[in-house]
């Protein structure tokens, strides 16, 4: 069964064509095929390639299973702890990827249950705000509380649902959330932000499609394309399908940063655990967050960077020294049409910060990409 960990899919009552979510390495990920791996090494059928993650950006041509120059045809790049495709915000190609269970690597064709591929996009602290159920194609909020900073303004934010209701039917990417401004004098009144429109025209939105952006202090909404959002100072958070973006870093120019106060709990959360949560059951956790919690010196607030199908998945969360995650990846080459399986078999000389020498396994496969 595939463990999909950050998927962009729709609700259980909607067709797969309306989906648009991502996969995960732990807990209740999605449902999928069993794969043909059986016992033994699931990656044995792939060609090996060693990449020194400490030697700068390594551009990899999956066709030739070789490291090439940036000016040559390349499909993925390893840059320290990050892996990018030649597509989305990371390259001029049409590359994308999707996490799959490791045993599926032993197959020779594109898995039938992969709903879509994930392009590299701007994202950051909110990347793991939900768990995806691949069996019903439904998204469940983890109800984590996030700290969000806009200059001297400090907020706590909790996402309540990925779904809104239009003409009596559930619609994905219509967000429900709550927030409250927090100061050293106390917590201000909680604001419910209802039906924030992150639909962006449907699954696989074009860059020209706007989506909803929110100003926490006033509940004002702005429908902006990604390009328009980058030059606007009006908003704090933008919602685009399953992605929650900050007006800071690669997402915008204001410098807003954020932190997941419960990030350390994600690895141990199962789908069953998260499905039991409700806005009512998690209100006490939201109410309990005070100024001292949001200003703790140990917190690592950060702006948005580039989020990919590999983010927080190709390396096992919490491993020290770093270890490869228990997943493989379906990758579209830079042409957007040629499918490959990619896995990370071992890390040699890894530390808590560096993967060291990364041994990849690469295999060209048949079939059509979603």
Short description:
The chain is mostly beta strands and 370 residues long. It has 2 domains: 146 residues, no CATH class; 160 residues, no CATH class.
Please give the largest β-sheet.
6 strands, antiparallel
Shape: globular
Measure the end-to-end span.
18 Å
Task: Tally the helices.
Answer: 4
Number of strands: 23
Specify the structural class: mainly beta
Q: How many domains, as an integer?
A: 2
Helix content: under 10%
Q: pLDDT average, as an integer?
A: 89
Strand content: 35-45%
Keywords:
370 residues; mainly beta; 2 domains; six-stranded antiparallel sheet; five-stranded antiparallel sheet; 4 helices; 35% strand; disordered N terminus
Q: How does this structure look, described?
A:
This protein is mainly β and 370 residues long. The protein folds into 2 domains: 32-120 and 308-364, no CATH class; 142-301, no CATH class. Helices cover 5% and strands 35% of the residues. The chain has 4 helices and 23 strands. Strands 10, 11, 12, 13, 14 and 19 form a 6-stranded antiparallel beta sheet that branches. A 5-stranded antiparallel beta sheet has the order 1-23-22-21-6, with no helix packed on it. Strands 3-2-4-5 form a 4-stranded antiparallel beta sheet, with no helix packed on it. It starts with 46 loop residues before the first strand and ends in a 6-residue tail after the last strand.
